[in-house]
Amino acid sequence: MRLTKGLFERSYFFKELDSELVDSLSAIARLTRMTKNQVLFMEGEEADGFYAIQDGVLKVSHISQLGDERVIAILERGDIVGEMGLLDGGVRSATVTAASEARLIFIRSSEFFALADSKPAIFRHMLTVMSRRLREETQAQTAQSFLNMEGRLAKVFSQLVLSFGEEDGQGGFIISHKITQNDLGSMARVARENVNRTLKDWKEEGWLSKEGRFYKISDMRYLERLMKT
To answer: For residues 82 and 29, what is the distance between their CA atoms, to the nearest angstrom?
Structure first.
């Protein structure tokens, strides 16, 4: 299936390329569709290419030998995943699973390198994209370091609302994805014991609650204020 330029423009990796390079990449790219909870790849697997997310949400996690999962990041439309294994030839460093239905563009490593050897601008573009993302992540971590524990945890909840939030009809949002306290701690870089204590305080304040397995936020303005502390 030949992919259109419009589809490529949904990813920041492709949208800044000139038309000639987009046409070259479209000839080797494949569209992959995923169902919710489908595993894209497992930690330790051989890296055979990278993906650009066109629609949907993916979660990045580590899974223990006992099968316990620890979510470490949430990826959305525009993000790329699997590019580290592409460049260093190593195995997958984490497990990636579809947290919703998703569409991805996949480019196989061997085909990418064959094309990039003849069109070095693609290599330069990949380095630019990865450097920019590293810079953004460094800036985000620096900004986060100035936040207190509640502020970091509030930022995680804000991202979860953007990724999984469903309006409850009363001005609040239900995060329609199961997130554990361990997941929250990993994403916010906060010890689980502190996560537990903070969530208990927030529930007592009345703006955070649980709807079955899911968290519910009834006051987004309060959450936004916490993100600035």
So the answer is: 15
Which alpha helices (DSSP H) does the chain contain, by range?
5-8, 12-15, 19-26, 83-88, 109-118, 121-145, 149-164, 181-188, 192-205, 220-226
- Segments of the chain scoring below 50 in pLDDT: 1-2
DSSP letter string, 139-200: HHHHHHHTS-HHHHHHHHHHHHHHHHEEE-SSS-EEE-S---HHHHHHHHT--HHHHHHHHH
What is the structure's pLDDT at 203?
95
Q: What is the pLDDT of residue 143?
A: 65
At 66, list the tokens: 């006992």
Q: Is the dihedral of CA 152, 154, 156, 158 positive or negative?
A: negative
Cα 53 from Cα 67, distance rounded (Å): 26
Q: What pLDDT does 171 receive?
A: 87
Please answer whether residues 42 and 92 qualify as being in contact, where contact means their C-beta atoms are separated by less than 8 angstroms: yes
Please give the pLDDT value at position 43: 92
Please state, in angstroms and rounded to a whole number, the distance separating the CA atoms of residues 103 and 56. 7
pLDDT for the residue numbered 1: 45
Evaluate the CA torsion angle 110, 1, 101, 156 in order and state its sign. Answer: positive
Predicted local distance difference test score (pLDDT) of residue 123: 83
Q: What is the pTM of this model?
A: 0.78
